[in-house]
């Protein structure tokens, strides 16, 4: 295997319980090399690139990810006194909120994968971020309602308990969390969102985020 063209993704392997790889270049040489290997493959390509070779070598579309970015000067905060952040939260409580919360995830949308493996991938990721002190609880009127996970200036994961969903709380929690990241000295805060997640697209737009880029994601499963 040529390291520059294809790399192993052990974080995906742990969750999916199969060999997993990412193609780092969109070339026929890399696509051809994947033909002789078993496992699950991911490749991220420019939306304007031709997808002819991808289809020829068995890759199928799963998602388009966009990158919203917010600068301190363009940030539009919202306030609600009942909403607070919790910096000391129980690990099991956070993981419980995570379960089943990611319908827009590309591994959940991959029709060749079992949903349990996709769920486990997010649980593993959230657990790793928690162990790195990169997860804050979201409290409503003193009760844990959800969580906000990040790394440096990148928002990575966020979810609410079912009883707090659909109540318009996200913009208030995001406002508090993003403001703290700005206060820690970051000039910008960014995230990555599925283009199919319209609720999240509307949320970040309301906070002053602007869309700076996009990638199409294709998968392949060789068994």
From TrEMBL:
* N-acetyltransferase domain residues: 81-223
Q: Which PROSITE patterns match?
A: GNAT
Report the GO molecular function annotations. acyltransferase activity, transferring groups other than amino-acyl groups
One family name in Pfam for this protein:
Acetyltransf_1
Record bears the keyword Transferase = yes
Query: Which SUPFAM superfamilies does its entry note?
Result: Acyl-CoA N-acyltransferases (Nat)
Keywords from the UniProt entry: Transferase
State what protein this is by name. Answer: GNAT family N-acetyltransferase
């Amino acid at each position: 295997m040529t390291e520059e063209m294809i790399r192993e993704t052990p974080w995906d392997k742990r969750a999916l319980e199969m060999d997993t790889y990412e193609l780092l270049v969109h070339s026929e040489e890399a696509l051809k090399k994947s033909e002789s290997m078993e496992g699950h493959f991911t490749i991220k390509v420019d939306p304007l690139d031709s997808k002819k070779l991808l289809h020829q070598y068995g890759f199928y579309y799963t998602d388009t990810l966009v990158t919203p970015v917010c600068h301190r000067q363009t940030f539009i905060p919202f306030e609600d006194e009942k909403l607070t952040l919790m910096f000391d939260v129980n690990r099991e409580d956070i993981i419980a909120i995570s379960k089943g919360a990611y319908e827009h995830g590309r591994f959940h949308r991959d029709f060749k994968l079992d949903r349990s493996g996709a769920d486990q991938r997010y649980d593993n990721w959230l657990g790793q971020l928690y162990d790195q002190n990169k997860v804050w609880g979201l409290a409503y009127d003193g009760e844990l309602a959800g969580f906000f996970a990040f790394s440096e200036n990148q928002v990575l994961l966020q979810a609410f308990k079912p009883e707090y969903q659909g109540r318009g709380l996200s913009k208030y929690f995001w406002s508090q969390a993003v403001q703290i990241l700005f206060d820690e000295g970051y000039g910008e805060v960014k995230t990555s969102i599925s283009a199919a997640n319209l609720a999240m697209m509307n949320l970040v737009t309301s906070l002053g985020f602007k869309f700076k880029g996009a990638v199409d994601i294709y998968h392949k499963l060789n068994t």
